[in-house]
Amino acid sequence: MYINGNWVTPASTFAVFNPANGEQIGTVADGDREAARAAIAAAAEAFPAWSRSSAYERSARLYRAHGLMLERSASLAELMTREQGKPLKAARNEVKYAADFLLWFAEEAKRVYGETIPSARSDQRFLVQKCPVGVVAAITPWNYPISMLTRKLAPALAAGCTIVLKPAEATPLCAVAVFEILHEVGFPAGVVNLVTAADPAPIGEEFCTNPLVRKITFTGSTAVGKKIAGDSAPQLKRLSMELGGHAPFIVFDDADPVHAAKGVALVKFLNTGQACISPNRIFVQRSLLPAFLETLRQRIEALRAGDGMDPANAIGPLVNQAAVEKVDRQVRDALDHGAILHAGGARLLDNGLDKGHFYAPTLLSNVSPRMRVYREETFGPVAPVIAFDDEQEVLAMANDTSYGLAAYVYTRDLSRAVRAFEGLQFGIIGINDINPTSAAAPFGGMKESGLGREGAREGLEEYLETKLGGFSI
Ligand code: NAD
Questions:
Q1: Which domains does the chain have, with CATH numbers?
Q2: How do residues 8-30 score in pLDDT, each as one tens digit?
Q3: Residue 203 CA: which ligand 1 atom is closest?
């Protein structure tokens, strides 16, 4: 753990395993509630000086962190592949994306502008200033174990907040590597703090109930997000929540079915489907179905699963055995209710894959609302295809979910694209685009997919309070 500018030797540790082969790759500190309390106290003590430092000083440190992260990108990517499982090429892309947040907010730190507002009284002046919210507690997931950290750390630090971060128990080594960079950059003691723990619950309780914490930023499942929102409600802490998704991917009959199927194959199986913006319901207009399914099936059959360190492998393992079982349950349930299997549909056990948590990339058609896969977030390599007949119907089906994170639309009709963009109740919409994300663009969901946005100008606002001064002169 990293508390108050020091690496803290823990009383106990827990082991970290490679999900591709089950091998132990390291141990980390097993922090308890006491450790979280100490880290929060350090962050609170560091806050007054850090919040008064100039934006230029904060920016300079973020620039330096960006430089160090890029210098280390090869070793960070390898660590990520061994700890989280994604193929090395995807891990390199993630490190670059993670560094982008450090750079973006190094720049934005200098653009926290206030405002003067004309008063109705000639002897009065209104001045609006933005100030940091205070101590931030951050909780991050395992699926993007470096970029989800910098997406919170960079704007919090740019705004002048101090921070305590608890990473996911499956990927603490990536978090330690990020904090080694922050330590080298030389943030003042207490400004950044890391608490790793095998059991997240006591740390979460401390974050929610400690009055020194003014904001909680959380990325993870909707269930845990709701618990944190509830537990922190008595103190009305500021919240940012990046939660689950159930993205529709809509292919209209004026689109090229081959191009659209290639797009689905690329985005659906990224990170083995373990992404909150992964397409979960693929709606294809009926006349395109045969060409679309055939292209997607061919693409899926060409995806090789295995250890991400081997560049021939495009599909890494799932995070753990429970994830494999969840995916398999959804597939069995769909087949029991009349889905048609075109590819995959089982665990992968041959050639040593039984030592890891592998599931075959799977293509299902004839999927209907009676199936769990239609309703539940999968977080795995399953592409469920649903036929539709008209635009109104498909927009209603796409919106028929409590989630509202990402959606994708393929069409060559501009008017239809605008109608779909305006009609879909989702925070991020890709129109003929499978990667609508960037450090410069606001990321976040509507409905039960979350609160607030990360990245972009909006990402900095999440860490700022608005203060009004009324001056009588
Ligand atoms: P999770 O909610 O189980 O875990 C996320 C984090 O919460 C981890 O750090 C975990 O240790 C912590 N946590 C778990 N129980 C806790 C508790 N009681 N108190 C405090 N912290 C607790 O989610 P997961 O399985 O790790 O991640 C998958 C989920 O995250 C999916 O639903 C996915 O859609 C979502 N996700 C969302 C985004 C986004 O930006 N919207 C990004 C990545 C992942």
A1: 2-243+447-472 (3.40.605.10), 247-431 (3.40.309.10)
A2: 988 899 999 999 999 999 999 99
A3: 20
